[in-house]
Amino acid sequence: MFDATFPGYTPAYELRRMIGDKELSPVELVEATLRRIDADNSKLGSYITVIGDEAIEAARVAETAVMRGDKLGPLHGIPVPIKDLEGVAGVRLTHGSVPADEISDTDALCVERIRSAGGIIIGKTNTPEFGHAGTTENTVFGPSRNPWNLKHTPGGSSGGAAVSVAAGMTSIAQGSDGGGSIRIPCAFSGIYGIKATQGRVPRRITSEHSWHPVNNSSVGPMTGTVLDSAVLLNVLSGPSPDAEYTTINEEPPDFTTALGSGVRNIKMGLSLTLGGAVVDSEVANSVLKAAEVFSELGAEVEEVDFRPKDNEDVMSGFLDYFCVRGYAAYGNLLKNPDKAAQLTDYFRENLENGRACSTTRYISALNLIGRCRNYTQNFFDRYNVLLTPVTAVPAFPINEPPSKIGGCVVTNRRWGFIPFTPLFNLTGNPAASIPCGFSAGGLPIGLHIIGPMCDEKTVIAVSAAFEKARPWTEHRPNLSVI
């Protein structure tokens, strides 16, 4: 049933059905969404920019199409927020960065596809500076806050998008993932999200960096339900003549057809450490209980030592690659003293690390990527999916990443809580975050489901089987206290 106070707690697929059956007006839905955002955005920090007038006008056009009996797209009349790293024509684009604040000339390719499917762009969600952190704080707007505990981070870099869904503002949101930036905030915020195979969701060529053969970042869905993610992934996926070099040129499958497949006889590898990472006991226990659910559903679950290299080496190589790519794209900001002074500490540190990285270390990082891709491909010759935690800990207080995890000192606090996600940005494999439990403090915990290249359907099938066995949408943050 549609709740106008919390419109995002009705799944998008149900809202779309109601709109098509003339039970709900797109104008009514958009107005309810804007009221919901207005009520709590100042406390939650989900949206940097809200485009209410434009959204209402688009909703009126959508309503006219319904009344005319036009053929409607899969997102017709559904409000969709866009992460503020992607352009929306005529709308402010901050990148979460004071010196990079601008107005977009054109829609990003993902925005074009969402509009073509009938989606209504509602605003731009909060992100750390250029997406360069696993939490969401910047000096443009301030931090995003976790709806389950406002003192805690919702994760990042798609933190504002996660908050929009978790707080019932919208049913779906567009995110992007270059090191875990969809999966981390989904885990911390208790929602679902999937990073597709590298190249499945195209991005438009915008610079020389669009030709890089290892594209670690991918646009993807963040939603309350698995079906909503499958629908949005259908919309976002597929080749484009304007797309980057790494785009998959074959037409994608219909991801919604995977939902009823189940997991019987699916062979799953389970790794709690991914090559030696330390994990909080509450996270480990929740993941183990989730694995037991899959066993009960007929899957074959086996603990494995998934170790292309030691986790510390993988993280070191990822950061070298990530920071060098960041410096190549944005290093000019360091050359201007006025702009450099406006950068956040974490982004400046990443740029400086990229500048300092030797060619030998960068080549070693590329060699690591090749090794990890080969190892992972061989693993999936024997297993259908890999299960790990998404993060090493539940969400922590804003600007206070853990200094110890499982009694062990964390050597790099900015990155030490995410030892599980970056590897699969290097390999390019599809990977999802699915709610699987709560900490003693009432904070969500995420299960990481990784599949073979180009096999998002298996990841979605496994996710849907768990969702059916252990529904999570009935668990909602207590928003009456914020």
Automatic annotation (TrEMBL):
Residues 28-459 form the Amidase domain. One of its GO terms (molecular function) is aryl-acylamidase activity. InterPro entries: Amidase (IPR000120), Amidase_CS (IPR020556), Amidase_dom (IPR023631), AS_sf (IPR036928). It is an enzyme of class 3 (hydrolase). Gene3D superfamilies: Amidase signature (AS) domain. Keywords: Hydrolase. The keyword Acyltransferase does not apply. PROSITE patterns: AMIDASES (PS00571). It comes from the Bacteria. Its EC number is 3.5.1.13. SUPFAM superfamilies: Amidase signature (AS) enzymes. Belongs to the amidase family. PANTHER family: GLUTAMYL-TRNA(GLN) AMIDOTRANSFERASE SUBUNIT A, MITOCHONDRIAL, TRANSAMIDASE. This is Acylamidase. It comes from Candidatus Moanibacter tarae. The gene is aam_2.
